[in-house]
C-alpha cells in the first residue's frame, strides 16, 4: 500500500519581493518632496546602555555562559546579539546551575527573586536601571509608613512585578484610567501613587486625575517616576506627529515604551504609525500616501537599527532628513557595583556609559 502522507520539510518562507521605487512613485497620491523627520532623542537610554554593557563586561571578564533572568532589555536584536556572545536567557533562577553567574535585567526584580538566587548560591549582578531602583525604594519607604500604594502600570510586566514585590501587602496595581474608576482602597487619607517608568505620560496623568477625583488626598511620589528617556521620546514624537503622514517606530513588541510611541504618534496627529523590529519589516506600500515620514525608536533600541530604516527610506526617495530635537541627554550611570570591583581588579576602569548612547546628527 502506498503511503501518501504529506511531509512538511519545514522550509523557511521565501522573502517577499518589494515593489520598486518606480512602482511606488507611480502609485503615490502626493507628488511633493519627500522628507524624514528624525526624532531626537531616540534609542538607547542610560539605563539600557548600562545593562547591556554589564552583560558584555561580565562575559568578557568571567567568560560564558553568563545567565540573564528575563530579557536584559526588551529588544530582539540586543538579546540575539548577546546570545551569540554567550549569554543565556532564562525565565527564573531555578533554570540556572548552582553557583553560576546571573544578571538581573534592567527592569528589576522582587526581593523574592533575590532570595531565590541566594538560596542557589548564584553569583549575581544587579543591572536594574537606577530609576527603577528609585521606585522600588519609594515603595518600601511608603509601605513602612503605612501608606497604601496605587502602582500605575501593566500587570505582568517585569518592572511592575519587581516593584509590586517590594511591598505586596500594601500595593494595588492600576492598569488603566478605567480601572481608576473602580479600584477600592482601605484608607483614602494614607494613599500614594507610583508608576512604571515606561508608560505613556498622558495616560498616566489621566489615571492620576481620575484617582484624585475619587481620593482627593492622594499623594504624588517625591519625584516623577516616568523616566526622563520615556518622557523625552514621547515629547519628540508629539512634535513630529502633526506633520507626519507616516511614523515608523523601531522597537520590539514587548517594549512598553516603544508600543507607547506608536500610540502617542497616532494620538497627536500622525496619519499612520507602525512599529517594526527591523528595516525589512517596513512595508513599502506605506510610502504611497506618505510625503513626510517620522522616525523614532524605543529606549532599548541600538542606533544601527534606525540607520537601517533610514537607508531603506533613502532607497525610496526620502533623502531629506531633518532631526527634530526635543532634548539633549547627558545622563550617565555607573556600572553595577558587583561588576565594578571585578573590573577594577583587572585594571578595567569602566565606570559610566559615555559614548555608546551618543547619536550622530543626521
UniProtKB/TrEMBL annotation:
Biological or metabolic pathway of the protein: Isoprenoid biosynthesis; isopentenyl diphosphate biosynthesis via DXP pathway; isopentenyl diphosphate from 1-deoxy-D-xylulose 5-phosphate: step 6/6; Isoprenoid biosynthesis; dimethylallyl diphosphate biosynthesis; dimethylallyl diphosphate from (2E)-4-hydroxy-3-methylbutenyl diphosphate: step 1/1
Protein's UniProt keywords contain Isomerase: no
Chain residues that bind (2E)-4-hydroxy-3-methylbut-2-enyl diphosphate: 74, 107, 157, 197, 255-257, 300
Binding annotation for dimethylallyl diphosphate: 74, 107, 157, 255-257, 300
Cofactor(s) essential for the protein: [4Fe-4S] cluster
Active site per database record: 159 (proton donor)
Positions of transmembrane segments: none
Signal peptide segment: none
Keywords: 4Fe-4S, Iron, Iron-sulfur, Isoprene biosynthesis, Metal-binding, Oxidoreductase
Catalytic reaction(s) noted: dimethylallyl diphosphate + 2 oxidized [2Fe-2S]-[ferredoxin] + H2O = (2E)-4-hydroxy-3-methylbut-2-enyl diphosphate + 2 reduced [2Fe-2S]-[ferredoxin] + 2 H(+); isopentenyl diphosphate + 2 oxidized [2Fe-2S]-[ferredoxin] + H2O = (2E)-4-hydroxy-3-methylbut-2-enyl diphosphate + 2 reduced [2Fe-2S]-[ferredoxin] + 2 H(+)
Residues the entry annotates as binding isopentenyl diphosphate: 74, 107, 157, 255-257, 300
EC top class named in words: oxidoreductase
Pfam families in alphabetical order: LYTB
Top-rank taxon: Bacteria
Listed GO biological process terms: dimethylallyl diphosphate biosynthetic process; isopentenyl diphosphate biosynthetic process, methylerythritol 4-phosphate pathway; terpenoid biosynthetic process
Function of the protein: Catalyzes the conversion of 1-hydroxy-2-methyl-2-(E)-butenyl 4-diphosphate (HMBPP) into a mixture of isopentenyl diphosphate (IPP) and dimethylallyl diphosphate (DMAPP). Acts in the terminal step of the DOXP/MEP pathway for isoprenoid precursor biosynthesis.
Family per similarity comment: Belongs to the IspH family.
HAMAP family: IspH (MF_00191)
Name used for this protein in its record: 4-hydroxy-3-methylbut-2-enyl diphosphate reductase
Annotated organism of origin: Falsarthrobacter nasiphocae
Amino acid at each position: 500500500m502506498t503511503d501518501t502522507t504529506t511531509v512538511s520539510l519545514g522550509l523557511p518562507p521565501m522573502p517577499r519581493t518589494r515593489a520598486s521605487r518606480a512602482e511606488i512613485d507611480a502609485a503615490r497620491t502626493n507628488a511633493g518632496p519627500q522628507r524624514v523627520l528624525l526624532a531626537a532623542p531616540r534609542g538607547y537610554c542610560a539605563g539600557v546602555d548600562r545593562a547591556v554593557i554589564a552583560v558584555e563586561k561580565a562575559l568578557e571578564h568571567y567568560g560564558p555562559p553568563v545567565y540573564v533572568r528575563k530579557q536584559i532589555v526588551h529588544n530582539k536584536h540586543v538579546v540575539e546579539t548577546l546570545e551569540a556572545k554567550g549569554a543565556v536567557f532564562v525565565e527564573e533562577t531555578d533554570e540556572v546551575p548552582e553557583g553560576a553567574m546571573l544578571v538581573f535585567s534592567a527592569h528589576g526584580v522582587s526581593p523574592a527573586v533575590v532570595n531565590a538566587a541566594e538560596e542557589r548560591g548564584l553569583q549575581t549582578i544587579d543591572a536594574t536601571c537606577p530609576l527603577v531602583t528609585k521606585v522600588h525604594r519609594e515603595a518600601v519607604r511608603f509601605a513602612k509608613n503605612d501608606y497604601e500604594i496605587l502602582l500605575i502600570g501593566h500587570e505582568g510586566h517585569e518592572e511592575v512585578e519587581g516593584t509590586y514585590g517590594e511591598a505586596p501587602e500594601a500595593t494595588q496595581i492600576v492598569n488603566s484610567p478605567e480601572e481608576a474608576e473602580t479600584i477600592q482602597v482601605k484608607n483614602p487619607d494614607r494613599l500614594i501613587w507610583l508608576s512604571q517608568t515606561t508608560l505613556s505620560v498622558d495616560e498616566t496623568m489621566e489615571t492620576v486625575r481620575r484617582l484624585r477625583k475619587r481620593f482627593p488626598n492622594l499623594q504624588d511620589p517625591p519625584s516623577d517616576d516616568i523616566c526622563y528617556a520615556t518622557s523625552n521620546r514621547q515629547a519628540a514624537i508629539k512634535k513630529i506627529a502633526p506633520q507626519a503622514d507616516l511614523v515608523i517606530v523601531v522597537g520590539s513588541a514587548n517594549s512598553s515604551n516603544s508600543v507607547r510611541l506608536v500610540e502617542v504618534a497616532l494620538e497627536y496627529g500622525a496619519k499612520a504609525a507602525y512599529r517594526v523590529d527591523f528595516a525589512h519589516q517596513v512595508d513599502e506600500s506605506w510610502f504611497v500616501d506618505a510625503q513626510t515620514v517620522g522616525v523614532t525608536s524605543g529606549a532599548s533600541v541600538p542606533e544601527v537599527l534606525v540607520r537601517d530604516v533610514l537607508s531603506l527610506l533613502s532607497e525610496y526617495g526620502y533623502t531629506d532628513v531633518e532631526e527634530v530635537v526635543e532634548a539633549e541627554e547627558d545622563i550617565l550611570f555607573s556600572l553595577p557595583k558587583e561588576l565594578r570591583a571585578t573590573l577594577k581588579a583587572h585594571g578595567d576602569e569602566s565606570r559610566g556609559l559615555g559614548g555608546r548612547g551618543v547619536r550622530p546628527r543626521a
